[in-house]
Design goal:
Blueprint lengths: L14 E2 L4 H10 L10 E2 L3 H8 L5 H27 L8 E3 L8 H4 L8 E5 L2 H11 L2 E4 L13 E6 L8 H13 L1 E11 L16 E4 L14 E4 L1 H12 L4 E9 L3 E7 L15 E10 L4 E9 L8 E6 L2 E5 L1 E6 L10 E9 L10 E7 L5 E8 H48 L1 H15 L10
Parallel strand pairs: 3-4, 3-6, 4-5, 6-7
Antiparallel strand pairs: 1-2, 7-11, 8-9, 10-11, 12-13, 13-17, 14-15, 14-18, 16-17, 18-19
Length: about 450
């Protein structure tokens, strides 16, 4: 059974209301209509820490990234809900499973009545935070699939970046339990990491799933919550077995955040005609610099549309107002790591509003595809952009130098380790060592001081 956490807590000391200006301009640009967004954040939100960690030395970029990733997941989910139910508002009920502190929920409640939304989390403070802030039904779960309800079903179940963390022993049980929560003819949506994202030199075993004890969580056990990569055959096989072959399954490679594979499962027969498969525009701002004594800001990056050969257009705003479009440059062939055969470079040149750029001037750059779908590539103060891109280049150079030094030290380190291991083995096997250990143990029993070995 699902259970509410005991008691209620006030979140005054544990929550923050960000007033970051680039974030405000980002949200105003992307949410021009509808009710205001609840921006409250919990200090215990590990995904917020993860987003900030992506931009060391530029926390403002990490804050925008947290909201951007939540908005992207929300937009993907809403397109699929509208496809199945005619509109987001017509969705009968939704379970946002393992939803953290509401990275996506805060956007959902603007389009779907909170009483139709339920969330689950393994952390009691996350459950209580979402229940109080967003007014949704919020439930506490455990690491066991049996903690989910037996007496309720939903029109849609959404599990973003959950199966990307499960070992084989719990992958299928959780898949089965969540599938059973879906009402007949309704949607089960979840993401995985495909084999193309495996670390270099690693391949999938015959089972079709590879698991490593690594994750961004400092709270959950790595035995239960690590990092998993799976094949499409593995997932389809498990779904066929669970559903008795009755589920309709669509696989959308890199369908979530242009990174994780997305599975769209209808519980029962369904016509997949019209299923939105387009991923939307992609891009990245790679470098920038101030020119003409600080009067011009030059931004360089790349853009692409994975679903079309047509290149998205790139536009920029300065302090929330239009500031110009980008000029497209040569084709790029170094973007295979993000699932693109090729992309196009772009360059944006912005002129300051008051003669020279001020450090707190905010620049927003976005790519827009032929269907009008947008992706914000960057929203930050000029000072942050310049410092971060310079630091990014410097850090990359330093990393390359350190890697070269490490290559030179590996052989020497391996030899020294082998020598020390051999010496320790000899000492442990020697009669003197055994006598010394016995004498030390007796001294400890008698309460005598035993000197620590030298470091």
């Amino acid at each position: 059974m699902l259970r509410f956490p005991a008691g209620r807590r006030a979140f005054g000391m544990d929550s923050i209301e960000p007033t970051n200006r680039p974030l405000s301009i980002f949200l105003e640009d992307q949410l021009s209509e509808g009710p205001p967004l609840d921006r409250a954040l919990s200090r215990a939100d590990e995904m917020l820490d993860f987003s900030r960690g992506l931009y060391t030395g530029a926390m403002g970029l990490g804050l925008v990234e947290y909201f951007r990733s939540g908005l992207l997941a929300h937009q993907t989910l809403c397109r699929l809900l509208a496809w199945r139910f005619g509109s987001v508002a017509a969705t009968p009920s939704l379970l946002d499973f393992a939803s953290g502190f509401g990275r996506t929920t805060r956007f959902l409640v603007r389009e779907l009545a909170p009483e139709r939304i339920a969330i689950t989390e393994i952390k009691a403070d996350a459950v209580e935070f979402q229940r109080q802030r967003f007014g949704v039904q919020a439930y506490l779960t455990t690491t066991s699939p049996e903690s989910l309800p037996e007496d309720r079903q939903f029109g849609a179940v959404f599990a973003a970046s959950f199966f990307t963390h499960l070992p084989e022993r719990t992958f299928r049980p959780w898949l089965e339990r969540l599938y059973r929560l879906v009402d007949d003819g309704c949607l089960f949506l979840f993401s995985t990491m495909g084999k193309e994202l495996l670390p270099a030199g690693t391949s999938l075993p015959p089972s079709g799933i590879h698991f490593e004890r690594v994750s961004e969580s400092a709270v959950l056990s790595l035995d239960d919550y690590g990092t998993a990569w799976v094949s499409e055959d593995f997932v389809r096989g498990a779904l066929a077995e669970i559903s008795g072959g009755k589920a309709t399954v669509a696989h959308l490679p890199r369908g979530l955040w242009h990174f994780q594979d997305l599975y769209v499962v209808v519980k029962g027969p369904a016509d997949l005609a019209g299923l939105p498969r387009e991923r939307g525009p992609m891009g990245y701002v790679e470098a920038c610099g101030l020119e003409d004594s600080g009067a011009v800001l030059r931004l360089i990056g790349w853009t692409a549309d994975p679903s079309s050969p047509e290149v998205p257009r790139v536009e920029a705003t300065l302090n929330g107002g239009p500031a110009g479009s980008a000029e497209l440059g040569p084709r790029r062939t170094d973007t295979a790591s993000v699932g693109l055969a090729e992309a196009r470079s772009f360059e944006v040149r912005l002129r300051a509003e008051r003669g020279l750029f001020e450090p707190d001037d905010v620049v927003l750059v976005k790519a827009i595809d032929r269907g009008g779908r947008e992706l914000v590539l960057m929203a930050a103060a000029v000072e942050t952009i310049v410092l971060y891109t310079k630091n990014d280049t410097a850090l990359a150079g330093r990393m390359a130098r350190l890697e070269a030094e490490l290559d030179g030290l590996r052989d020497a380190s391996a030899k020294e380790i082998a020598r020390l291991r051999a010496r320790i083995a000899w000492m442990e096997a020697s009669r003197f060592w055994r006598l010394r250990e016995t004498w030390t143990a007796w001294k400890r029993r008698l309460g005598l001081r035993v000197p620590e070995p030298p470091a």
